[in-house]
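Take a look at this chain, tokens included, and explain the fold to me:
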Amino acid sequence: MNLWNNTFTPMLLKEVSKPFNDKNYLYELKFDGIRAIVKVNKKCIKIVNRHNKDITHLFPELDSIKDIVKNNCIFDGEIVAMEEGYPSFLKLQHRIHLKDKPKIKYQSIHNPIVFIAFDILYKDKNLDQLPLIERKKVLDSFKENDSFLKSRWIEEKGISLYKYVKKVKLEGIVAKKKDSVYEINKRSLSWLKIKNFKKDTFLIGGYQKNKNNSLSLLLGKYINKEFIFVGKVMLSPKRALYESVLKQKKINKSPFKEEIEAIYIKPTLSCLVSYSEMTQSGHLRQPHME
């Protein structure tokens, strides 16, 4: 299949819980942004997300990627919004939902995003069957500009990179086999992601019953003596906490500041939850039970 003339979805990663060292892998930062495939030549550019939806119009500042290419090229990477030198998904979210062309143009000038390329799949011919380390060499031949950056990587020392990520509070790392081909339309064990999740204990103020018998726990915390809803987390019937929640005395009034359709319980039980960050609205992003 000629990648330039056909649509496809990017190679996806499996998630593992712990970092590791391996001389057969290279390691990169995991950027908190939007996965994107960029098809570009001197005359035109097309940007699609991982679901193959065209998002070119949302990021007009990426048009300058045309300046760094001479051939038909396809890059794989991440669209990232930077804030004080660090990726900010919250800042990027604002850009994603814009529809008004003048607002999009204004944001592209005053709050520009960047495309961080970590792979190249095409340069006048398919490159997807080359080993990753060879594709990296091709990618390295392109110059960076204000909109186009290249992901840095190291060999073997995944644990050290993960420790750095924990220290500076980045999203995580990615481990990729150096000899891996690019598996389009697939999730592969050749590429692994290790996320840097935050952990905290939250009180349970209620639950919703799901069709598979799991529970969606309503989590909260006290802020200035008010019990504030921070999000939901799934609880499997196999967990010991499951029966404790069901045995808890039900109450008629919401313990939260707001009303939420659920079965309310007195917020005395707590649970440990991992999550990536707090949103601007004070809700947990990507929560899961520990």
User: Anything to note?
Assistant: Residues 57 and 104 are 8 Å apart (CA to CA). The longest strand covers residues 198-209. The two ends are 43 Å apart (CA to CA). Helices lie at 89-96, 101-110, 132-139, 158-168, 240-247.
